[in-house]
Amino acid sequence: MPSMHQTESNAQAESGTLYIVATPIGNLADITLRALEVLRSVSLIAAEDTRHTRKLLSFYDIHKPLISYHSHNNRERGPELLEKIAAGISVALVTDAGTPAISDPGVLLVQQALERNLTVAVIPGPTALVSALVASGLPTHPFAFLGFPPARGANRKQFFSAHANLPMTLILYEAPQRLMRSLEDMLHSWGDRRIAIARELTKKFEEFFRGTITEAARHYAEGTRGELTLVVEGFKEGHAAEEEQQDWREELAVLLKDADRTVKEAIQEIVNRHRLPRRLAYQTALAIRDTRHRATE
After folding, report:
1. Per residue in 38-86, pLDDT tens?
2. What is the CATH number that goes with domain 4-126?
3. Contact yes or no for 99/124 (Cβ under 8 A)
């Protein structure tokens, strides 16, 4: 049986290489000389969004054929790319920003290439999670990268509860339209921990927020835009979120029984007293009211 080294050498001689090339996460200057060299040398570049990648290539005067590879076509496009590599063609895989295969469909192509004993070479470079972690002010070791939370449903609830007791720094990606929901879900499942939110990393309007989850919810109450990376303090004794929040939920339930107060007034009192996101208090009030309504039916 040939050694692993011999197997890889034979594969190199007979096939091309799949290059995993990290590209800038914002500032086009954040690309390595080696990445540029590889992009100029390969026969084909597989890109998440060919229009986006063409801007980068044009900036560096690189003219290579582009083919799309993204979450909607990766299962069909992957075998096509692997056949080209097996036939001796070298392909560079890039994502819209950062390192392919990190919360990215490129992970499937890497797995498939390795299963076929094709050569995979990583050209390292920018990744948002590391930049955000280093600038967060939170412990950088150990840490766990959680990717994007599920958008909705039971999987989303399970996501936050499953990671509640991890003792290391937690890193997530999130879309701006779901930021408030995630902050509320974290507060509910994880407690009011320290958090750093990096927005538009390396771009002109790069911004960092550092504080608690409750403070972040107030800061972003009016919404935000851009790409977001969230770095959250790991679990410590005293972060028992459900127990901590039960107090204000019980207070809200008592206030809602008071006939002299409107629901709006009860919510406002809880928000002011416990410095909670209004949406969280409002949703809890609706849940309490619905529970009482079902109990009287």
Report:
1. 999 999 999 999 999 999 999 999 999 999 999 999 999 999 999 999 9
2. 3.40.1010.10
3. yes
Q: Which CATH number fits domain 129-232: 3.40.640.10, 3.40.50.1010, 3.30.950.10, 3.60.10.10?
A: 3.30.950.10
Distances in Å between the Cα of 3 and the Cα atoms of 6, 8, 10, 25 are: 5, 9, 11, 39
Structure-token pair, residue 24 = 């800038």
- Alpha carbon distance 152, 170 (integer Å): 20
Q: What's the pLDDT at 288?
A: 80
Report if pTM > 0.70: yes
As given in the structure block, the two tokens for residue 124 are 């390292």
Report d(CA 185, CA 198) in Å as an integer. 19
| Tens of pLDDT, residues 118-131 | 999 999 999 999 99
Q: What is the 3-state secondary structure (H, E, C) of the chain?
A: CCCHHHHHHHHHHHCCEEEEECECCCCCCCCCHHHHHHHHHCCEEEECCHHHHHHHHHHCCCCCCEEECCCCCHHHHHHHHHHHHHCCCCEEEECCCECCCCCCCHHHHHHHHHHCCCEEEEECCCCHHHHHHHHHCCCCCCEEEEECCCCCHHHHHHHHHHCCCCCCEEEEEECHHHHHHHHHHHHHHHCCCEEEEEECCCCCCCEEEEEEHHHHHHHCCCCCCCCEEEEECCCCCCCCHHHHHHHHHHHHHHHHHCCCCCHHHHHHHHHHHHCCCHHHHHHHHHHHHHHHHHHHC
